[in-house]
Specification:
The protein has four helices and 16 strands. By secondary structure, it is of the alpha/beta class. It folds into two domains: 86 residues, Gamma-B Crystallin, domain 1, CATH 2.60.20.10; 184 residues, Collagenase (Catalytic Domain) (3-Layer(aba) Sandwich), CATH 3.40.390.10. The two termini are 24 Å apart. The structure holds zinc ion (ZN). The site of zinc ion has 4 residues, from helix 3.
Length: 285
């Protein structure tokens, strides 16, 4: 596939194709003021207003021709005609600082029965989310930077308002993700807030059934929760699902797998807009 930028609208003027990321378009043939784009092939591209993939974000998924990058009607976005300074074709890395909470009896969340089962499950969950991101062209890639077991009965089953963790559990420049056994409140499976709130993402390995009882959740279901909470963390919320049960940000889950869900181009763009302002986005070099 090729990605070609043009200095003028309607694919006119000087043009240049980009096979790789470009942290500054300044010294290219199109300079930092392209006005239209052609993408052949199905791959996604992020266009940024500032150098080093910062500032406003325009997400375009191919195959697509945008005759005027400043026009929403043409597939662009207000302010993006003659206003693009960097271009991204490969995913940004997000490092996760994972905590797996055990209780004082030595039990693990859900049906995990040893450290190695728990670690393996977490890696599987993260791989599922990465496959989902890749399938949807989200240009995001998760890595488990740290995985730590911590014993805490008060966090093994999280009580009302308890999804808050000591500073020693957190790492700057990484997204803190805590796997717990369950929430005391029936129906809650996961929680998170945008990064500004300084909160960790919490994912419970157990689900409460309608009519009582609970059971261990599958890795595909846990991956759905993690991707949903990462959505909140990166600034997208339930209304962005437009009430579609297939959307990753739909507010309820019914045991469904991450692979039953989708994420929209608008949601991907919004996540990258949030990420472009935060230090935990990696891969800038
Ligand atoms: Zn939610």
């Amino acid at each position: 596939m090729t990605v070609t930028l043009f200095t003028d609208t309607d694919f006119k003027g000087g043009s240049q194709s980009f096979a790789r990321n470009k942290s500054s378009l300044k010294d290219t043939k199109v300079g930092n003021n392209p006005s239209s784009i052609k993408i052949t092939g199905g791959e996604p591209v992020l266009l940024f207003k500032k150098e080093d993939w910062k500032g406003g974000v325009l997400y375009v998924k191919g195959p697509k021709n945008v005759s005027n990058l400043g026009s929403k009607k043409a597939g662009g976005k207000s302010g993006f005609k003659n206003g693009i300074t960097s271009l991204r074709r490969t995913p940004f890395d997000l490092d996760l600082n994972v905590t797996i909470v055990k209780n004082s009896k030595g039990e693990f969340p859900g049906d995990w029965n040893s450290s190695s089962t728990a670690e393996k499950a977490v890696l599987t969950i993260v791989n599922h989310v990465n496959r989902f991101y890749e399938d949807c062209g989200a240009l995001l890639k998760l890595s488990v930077a740290h995985c730590t077991f911590r014993t805490d009965d008060n966090k093994f089953v999280v009580k009302r308002g308890g999804a808050d963790y000591p500073a020693s559990w957190k790492r700057s420049g990484e997204i803190d993700v805590v796997f717990v056994h369950d929430f005391k409140k029936v129906g809650t499976q996961a929680k998170s807030k945008p990064p500004g709130f300084g909160k960790s993402i919490t994912v419970a390995a157990m689900a409460d059934f309608v009519g009582g009882g609970s059971g261990a959740r599958t890795t595909e279901e846990l991956a759905r929760s993690l991707a949903h909470e990462l959505g909140h963390y990166c600034g997208i919320h339930h209304p962005s699902a437009n009430n579609s049960k297939k959307n990753i940000m739909f507010k309820e889950g019914n045991g469904d797998s991450i692979f039953d869900r989708v994420i929209s181009a608008d949601q991907i763009e919004e996540m990258h807009t949030t990420l472009s302002k935060n230090v935990f986005r990696k891969g800038d070099r």
